[in-house]
Design goal:
Elements: H1 2-11, E1 15-22, H2 27-40, E2 47-51, E3 54-60, E4 66-72, E5 77-83, H3 86-93, E6 98-101, H4 114-123, E7 143-144, E8 153-156, E9 165-172, E10 177-184, E11 187-194, E12 198-200
Parallel strand pairs: 3-7
Antiparallel strand pairs: 1-5, 1-6, 2-5, 3-4, 8-9, 8-12, 9-10, 10-11
């Protein structure tokens, strides 16, 4: 018990990133409301950053046309860099749309570790400028949105194998590529193909 109390005392007065839980779809409202509160109450020296981690994702329509959309990495959560004390806890906790801090005890929020913060910032398009050691080459690329599973049956839509059916045997989510085993002349033939060139079979 003493060790825990000592750890809590050491944490007081230090800035850390915390995660707050919001009602679904209220992330932007919570962020805006909290920003306003921080400015009106003059608490920018205690609550430093409010962030909704976002990432780019490549999606394709039924014609295979790709476009980039921005989506929330953690729907229902907002990150706040702050110094926890009774006043800042009260201000954040009582912001409309906030249901509580993430942690085993709502009264004693648990800060994210340095590793967790770095991982979130690196993968988030709006966390880049908040990294202490910013790497100019670390801008995250848009991830393809692949809603397929291994062993799923698909139909090829374009190319020399158009209208052939096959089974997904490998998925490269980073590059947006699939390996599909196509039945040709009674033999399974692996075909490497872009994920936009296949469709699910109902």
């Amino acid at each position: 018990m003493d060790e825990n109390k000592n750890a809590e005392t050491l944490e007081k007065g230090k800035r850390h990133w915390y995660v707050i839980h919001t009602y679904s779809g209220y992330e932007n409202k919570v962020s805006a409301n909290l920003e306003r509160k921080v400015h009106s109450l003059g608490m920018s020296d205690r609550i430093f950053h409010i962030m909704i981690p976002m990432e780019n994702e490549v999606v394709a329509d039924e014609n295979g046309t790709k476009r980039i959309v921005t989506r929330k990495v953690f729907p229902g959560y907002v990150l706040v860099e702050m110094i926890i004390d009774d006043r800042t806890w009260y201000v954040v906790r009582n912001t409309p749309g906030v249901t509580g801090f993430v942690g085993p005890d709502n009264k004693q929020p648990v800060p994210l570790s340095d590793e967790e913060v770095k991982r979130i910032m690196t993968g988030s398009i709006n966390g880049q400028g908040l990294q202490e050691e910013e790497d100019s080459d670390s801008q995250p690329k848009a991830k393809p949105q692949i809603n397929l599973q291994l062993q799923q049956r698909v139909r090829l839509k374009t190319g020399p194998f158009a209208s052939f059916e096959g089974v997904v045997s490998a998925i490269d989510r980073e590059r947006g590529k699939l390996k599909v085993l196509v039945d040709m002349f009674g033999r399974e033939t692996p075909v490497d193909i872009d994920y936009t060139q296949v469709e699910e079979i109902e």
